[in-house]
């Protein structure tokens, strides 16, 4: 653990205070080494100077085999269970990248041991669970910190958009339109992923929550209250027909509209069936101008013109779009913990985004508009 004397899970309050002053490197574990966990583990190993990957866990044989080649040779201890991993001596922080249904359980157990958590979205499946985690973080007897991995906030384009709004470049935001459309993947992983996502809260909670979070960041940047007044969700299962059945009915193309108490309107659209590639774009319409981010989604600036038209290559996936943002996210989290600075994303905003996402999912499933009072409580 860098030059730290005593470790988090086992130290007294006084020891902790002394250790934080000296601590320059945060010892990380990664919970769940599937798609996201592998990305986080490699980022921490290679690209985050103030973080050290000390352990990881997954029950899946394929993940453990991957770790044998990619983590164990770098001195990372790998465990088949979270319960074994979380007891690793000197563990300071974890990235929770397990399946969504387990985020609450893994985050709560880590926080209760005084371990800082960077949790993939969705952090919990209910607002009540998130409020419980927030109260653990806020309790005076616990110094552990929590951040939800809303990756897009660490993208330099969205950061510049927020800065411009803060500087008044478009006046006051009025309408925000944000969409994230993934290229259709008809493989077995995606078929099981969409069903798991439906069980874990649905497409709004699993994915549109990124767009909702961006909307909240732009309202915050504009100094506007981000309190929902009413929400309405729509959706359809255009390709993944298995989503039409059962209690966890979901869509693979969904639209979530939100009216805020300040008068602002947000339109969020997500799809899992885009034909060309990852089409992720955002527009913020203000009283004196408009900001657009990525309206034509391309992998680079090259265009080929020939006798059949003008051609550009597509961006294959969210992974390609946000690869640097995942690194920036862990750096920002590590920095906030080591320097005792506020987390870049407030937990209050995470409660609001989850509240909106859940209400949108419910509105889509029930066909009813959902209203909130001026304090953001369901009517
Ligand atoms: N921030 C983003 O842009 C983004 C993008 C994709 C996915 N995600 C989120 O990341 C999370 C992981 O998604 P993924 O695509 O990597 O899925 P995945 O299925 O590839 O990975 C999940 C991992 O959790 C592991 N796991 C299952 N039970 C476990 C347990 N008891 N203890 C520890 N690990 C366990 C699985 O073995 C698997 O390795 C999801 O919550 C998803 O919503 C975020």
Order of helices and strands: HEHEHEHEHEHEHEHHEEEEEEEHHE
The shape is globular
The strands making up the biggest β-sheet line up spatially as 12-11-7-10-9-8-15
Mean pLDDT: 93
Number of contiguous helices: 11
Bound molecules: nicotinamide-adenine-dinucleotide
Rg calc? 21 Å
CATH class of the largest domain: Alpha Beta
Low-confidence stretches are 1-14
Q: Distance N terminus to C terminus?
A: 49 Å
How much helicity do the residues have? 25-40%
What does this structure look like?
This protein is an alpha/beta fold. The chain folds into 2 domains: 8-149, Rossmann fold (3-Layer(aba) Sandwich); 152-371, 2-Layer Sandwich (Dihydrodipicolinate Reductase, domain 2), CATH 3.30.360. It has 11 helices and 15 strands. A 7-stranded mixed sheet has the order 12-11-7-10-9-8-15, covered by helices on one side. Strands 3-2-1-4-5-6 form a 6-stranded parallel sheet, with helices on both faces. Strands 13-14 form a two-stranded antiparallel ribbon. It starts with 12 loop residues before the first helix and ends in an 8-residue tail after the last strand. The model is unreliable at 1-14 (pLDDT under 50). Nicotinamide-adenine-dinucleotide (NAD) binds next to α2. Nicotinamide-adenine-dinucleotide (NAD) is lined by residues 31-37, 57-60, 63, 82, 97-100, 102, 120-121, 149, 151, 206, 318.
């Amino acid at each position: 653990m860098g030059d730290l004397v005593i470790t988090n899970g086992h130290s007294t309050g006084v020891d902790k205070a002394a250790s934080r002053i000296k601590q320059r490197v945060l010892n990380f574990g990664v919970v769940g080494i599937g798609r996201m966990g592998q990305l986080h583990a490699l980022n921490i190993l290679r690209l985050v100077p103030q973080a050290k990957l000390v352990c990881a866990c997954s029950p899946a044989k394929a993940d453990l085999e991957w770790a044998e080649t990619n983590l164990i040779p770098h001195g990372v201890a790998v465990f088949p269970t979270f319960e074994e991993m979380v007891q690793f001596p000197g563990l300071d922080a974890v990235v929770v990248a397990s399946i969504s249904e387990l985020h609450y359980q893994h985050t709560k157990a880590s926080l209760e041991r005084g371990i800082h958590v960077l949790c993939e979205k969705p952090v919990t499946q209910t607002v009540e669970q998130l409020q419980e985690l927030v109260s653990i973080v806020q309790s005076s007897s616990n110094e552990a910190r929590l951040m939800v991995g809303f990756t897009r906030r660490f993208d330099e384009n969205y950061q510049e958009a927020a800065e411009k709004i803060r500087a008044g470049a478009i006046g006051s935001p009025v309408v925000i339109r944000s969409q994230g459309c993934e290229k259709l993947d008809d493989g077995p992983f995606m078929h099981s992923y969409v069903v798991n996502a439906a069980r874990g809260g649905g497409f709004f909670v699993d994915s549109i929550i990124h767009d909702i979070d961006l909307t909240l960041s732009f309202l915050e940047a504009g100094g506007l209250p981000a309190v929902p007044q009413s929400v309405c969700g729509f959706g359809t299962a255009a390709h993944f027909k298995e989503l039409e059945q059962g209690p966890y009915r979901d869509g693979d193309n969904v639209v979530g509209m939100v009216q805020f108490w300040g008068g602002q309107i947000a339109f969020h659209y997500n799809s899992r069936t885009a034909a060309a590639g990852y089409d992720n774009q955002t527009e913020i319409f203000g009283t004196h101008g408009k900001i657009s981010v990525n309206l034509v989604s391309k992998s680079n600036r090259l265009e080929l013109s020939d006798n059949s038209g003008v051609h550009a290559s597509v961006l294959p996936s969210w992974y390609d779009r946000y690869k640097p943002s995942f690194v920036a996210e862990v750096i920002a989290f590590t920095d906030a913990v080591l320097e005792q600075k506020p987390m870049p994303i407030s937990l209050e905003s995470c409660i609001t985004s989850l509240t909106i996402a859940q209400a949108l999912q419910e509105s889509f499933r029930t066909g009813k508009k959902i209203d909130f009072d001026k304090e953001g409580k369901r009517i």
